[in-house]
Q: What sequence folds into this?
C-alpha cells in the first residue's frame, strides 16, 4: 500500500510494524518483521532521514532503570551499532501527506507529457492507411455498416444513388431514411435517372420527398456513396457488377473524405430537383426556374415572419435545410435580401 508513495517493501514492513507499538528499536523490529538486525537498523535510519520516524529521545529520559545511562543517553547508544535505539512514528498525516502530494504532482506531470506527446504525434507522424480507410467485405457486413452510417447521423446525410442496389436492397433502406428524417437530419440525395426506373421506386421517392428528403437527378454519377455528418463515408469497391462478393471502404476524416464531400456538393449544384406529383415524382425542366414545393413552404413561413428555427420545427426539417432553401429562393429571384425576395415572390406569383 505504501509502495505507491515511494516506500520500499522493507520500509513498508518496518513502518507498519511501528504502528502497533509506541516505540521500537531495530532489535525489536528484527524479531517482529523477520529482518536482520542490521537491515532493520538501516531501514530505520533511512525512514528517519525522510522524516517518517524519529529517534524516541524522550523514551530514554524517563529515568527508568535499564533505559537510560548516567548521562541520560538513549539505551543502546553505547553498543555501537544503534540496534537498541528506540524509534517512534512521525504522525502519518504529517509524514505521508507530502509524499502523496509529490506522487500526485508526478502523475499530473506525466499526464501533461502524454498529452504533449500525443498532440505531437498527431501533427507530425504519418498515419497508417488503416486509420483512414476501413475495408468491409460481404453482403451482411456492407449492409450493417451502411445502416450504421445512416442511423448514426445526427445532422446531415449526403447520398449518391446509382443503378440497382446490390448489398443493401431498396426495401431495407426505407426505415433508416424515415428514422433520419424524423430526427431532423438534413437528408440530400443525388440519383441517376435509371435509379428511378419502376413505379414503386418513384412512389417511395415521392413519400420520402414529402417527408423532407431532398432529391435531385443527374445523367450519371462516378460512384455510389453515403456520407454521414461529414465524419465518415462509405463507397463500394467494385462498381462493375462483376459478380464477386460485395465490398466497400469506409473513409474516416481525412483529405479523401473532404474530396468526397466536395464531389457531392458539385454534383448537387448541377443536378435537377425532383417534385412530388399525385402519382410519383417529376423532374424540373432545364429551362424552368421555379421554386420546389419545399422551398415554397419555407417561403410562406418566412413571409409570415416566422424565424428559421421555428420554420424548421414546423416543417420537420433541420435549420440547415431551411437556410439552404432560402438561399436557393434568393438565387432564383436574384435577390440580395429577404425583403427583395418577398417582393419578387409577390410579383412572380409564387404564392
A:
Amino acid at each position: 500500500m505504501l509502495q505507491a508513495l515511494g516506500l520500499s517493501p522493507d520500509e513498508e514492513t518496518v513502518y507498519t510494524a511501528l504502528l502497533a507499538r509506541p516505540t521500537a528499536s531495530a532489535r525489536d523490529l528484527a524479531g517482529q518483521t523477520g529482518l536482520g538486525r542490521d537491515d532493520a537498523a538501516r531501514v530505520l535510519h533511512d525512514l528517519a532521514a525522510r522524516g517518517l520516524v524519529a529517534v524516541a529521545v524522550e523514551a530514554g529520559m524517563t529515568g527508568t532503570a535499564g533505559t537510560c545511562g548516567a548521562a541520560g543517553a538513549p539505551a543502546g547508544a553505547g553498543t555501537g551499532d544503534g540496534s537498541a535505539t528506540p524509534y517512534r512514528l512521525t504522525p502519518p498525516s504529517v509524514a505521508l501527506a507530502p509524499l502523496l502530494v509529490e506522487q500526485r504532482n508526478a502523475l499530473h506531470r506525466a499526464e501533461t507529457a502524454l498529452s504533449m506527446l500525443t498532440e505531437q504525434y498527431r501533427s507530425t507522424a504519418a498515419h497508417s492507411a488503416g486509420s483512414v480507410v476501413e475495408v468491409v467485405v460481404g453482403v451482411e457486413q456492407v449492409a450493417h455498416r451502411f445502416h450504421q452510417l445512416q442511423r448514426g447521423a445526427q445532422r446531415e446525410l449526403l447520398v449518391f444513388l446509382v443503378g440497382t442496389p446490390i448489398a443493401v436492397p431498396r426495401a431495407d433502406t426505407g426505415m433508416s431514411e424515415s428514422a433520419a428524417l424524423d430526427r431532423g437530419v438534413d437528408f440530400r440525395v443525388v440519383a441517376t435517372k435509371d435509379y428511378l426506373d419502376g413505379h414503386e421506386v418513384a412512389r417511395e421517392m415521392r413519400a420520402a420527398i414529402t417527408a423532407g428528403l431532398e432529391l435531385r437527378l443527374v445523367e450519371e454519377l462516378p460512384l455510389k456513396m453515403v456520407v454521414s455528418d461529414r465524419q465518415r463515408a462509405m463507397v463500394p469497391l467494385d462498381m462493375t457488377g462483376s459478380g464477386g462478393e460485395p465490398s466497400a471502404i469506409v473513409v474516416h476524416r481525412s483529405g479523401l473524405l473532404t474530396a468526397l464531400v466536395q464531389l457531392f456538393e458539385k454534383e448537387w449544384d448541377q443536378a435537377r430537383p425532383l417534385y412530388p406529383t399525385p402519382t410519383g415524382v417529376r423532374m424540373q425542366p432545364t429551362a424552368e426556374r421555379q421554386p420546389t414545393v419545399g422551398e415554397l413552404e419555407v417561403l410562406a413561413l418566412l413571409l409570415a415572419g416566422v424565424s428559421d428555427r421555428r420554420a424548421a420545427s414546423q416543417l420537420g426539417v433541420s435549420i440547415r435545410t431551411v437556410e439552404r432553401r432560402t438561399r436557393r429562393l434568393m438565387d432564383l429571384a436574384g435577390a440580395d435580401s429577404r425583403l427583395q425576395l418577398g417582393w419578387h415572390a409577390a410579383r412572380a406569383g409564387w404564392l
Summary: Residues 59-79 have pLDDT under 50 and may be disordered. The CA atoms of residues 91 and 255 lie 61 Å apart.
